[in-house]
Amino acid sequence: MASTLAPSHGRLGVVQGTALYIASVLGTGLLVLPGLAADVAGPASIVSVLAVLLLSVPLAGTFAVLASRYPDPGGVASYVRRALGDTAARAAGYWFMFGVCAGAPVVGVLGGEYVSAIAGIDRSMVPVIAAAIFVPPFVANAFGVRVAGWVQFVLTALLLAVVVTVVALAAPAALPQNFQPFLPHGWAGVGTAISLFVWAFAGWEVGTHISGEFRDPRRAIPIATGIALVVTGACYLVLQIITVGALGGAAGEGQVPLLELARLGSPGFGTIAVGVIAAIVALGVMNAYLAAFAKLGASLASNGDLPRWFSKGLESGAVPRRALALTAGVVAIYFALMVWSGLELTPFILVHTSSMVSIYALGMVAAVRLLERWSIGWWLAVVAAVLCGGMLILALGSLLPAALLAAAAVVVTVVRRVRASRAQESGGPASAEPVPVPLAAEPAGPAPEQKGARPENRPRPEASDSVRASAPSA
Predict the structure, then answer these.
(1) What are the tens digits of pLDDT across the range 15-63?
(2) What DSSP designation does 214 have?
(3) 66 near 290, Cβ under 8 Å?
(4) What is the per-residue burial (b if ≥16 Cβ within 10 Å, else e) of 238-256?
(5) pTM of the predicted structure, to 2 decimals
(6) For residues 116 and 343, what is the distance between their CA atoms, to the nearest angstrom?
(7) Which of 43, 384, 414, 416 is deepest in the core (most CB within 10 A)?
């Protein structure tokens, strides 16, 4: 049976997509994690990088399969809608839009902290620098994901070039004796380092929201994911080896470990290099995530989970400027709260990470239900679901923000059902869920989905949502 997927009208190719994927994963962890991991695990922190890299394969692979087969701006929320219903999808959407978004000012402030420390600028100027970091990504995304993609390509190329240069300059300072003893803190230290690097390899879900912007999602997304996985893994692994070998026991002592590493090879260049890395990382992460936030916001609006006014620009190739403006408002609120708290990062990091873990766990459950049983993609989803379950258990203490957003999704469902019940009693329309805005014309007379049908023969999320809109809410 021929696939019912509508042809993509996106403009992203493999190069731009790879750059966006790399930026979403190779984030601010590059600045601090190698030193922190070396501090808690010593030379064995290298093992932790390898372990997390291997654990990332099923997660990244599952998202690549879903994004390439079901390109939809709703991302994980659209997959959850198909598999688990509207309420669960709404929760996933709120987690990303209003929970993960709390990480945006964290990125800006971290970039500002590094730049101010390295340039000798008074710390009172950090909020100003952070605000300046927000501007270029918002401007780039206001012109569309294609412009943002090329901007990201330039940023990623610069980032990789500077990281390679820093590693090359510091490599001669690596000493064999710094790798002994290999397990100074035992395997418990390795476990702690693994938990740190888990967050370094997060970000694979970002590509699901811009999957419809690829010219050929089925070809480009798996290639971009594979390249990004290799590049980010190699960067963290090589950087960890050089950090341990060159800095030894002092690797976790400084607040700016990457700066110490850079100074070993070239004191003059080191300061400039780390300042450039910090700025590029902050700009790159913001640029990649804003494209996802904007598309998701428009998708949520099309399904009635946000005001309809924000749905403009949902179509492939269009620019969701209204949803981007909403994202700017959410970021501004979090940023204002952060400045008011004295640039305290921990509460905002907890909101971000708890929402991210919840999205991953729910997304993997949806993938297990959506993908063809016993296929490679299905097995990847099963392994990833088990891993995400473990992450969810580890994060239980910080899940309150995610629970509150999930409660908001449930409240929306209850309100809609009450309204639908009242409308039915008064003789009005009884539909509890609004009809989503269609993204593309539906194929004429699609065959009903059969149990066990191959995923590629299923309709697109947006097409099925249109058909399903009259069904009762989950």
Answers:
(1) 887 887 887 787 767 777 787 788 888 888 888 888 888 888 998 999 9
(2) B
(3) no
(4) bbbbbbbbbbbeebbeeeb
(5) 0.76
(6) 14
(7) 384
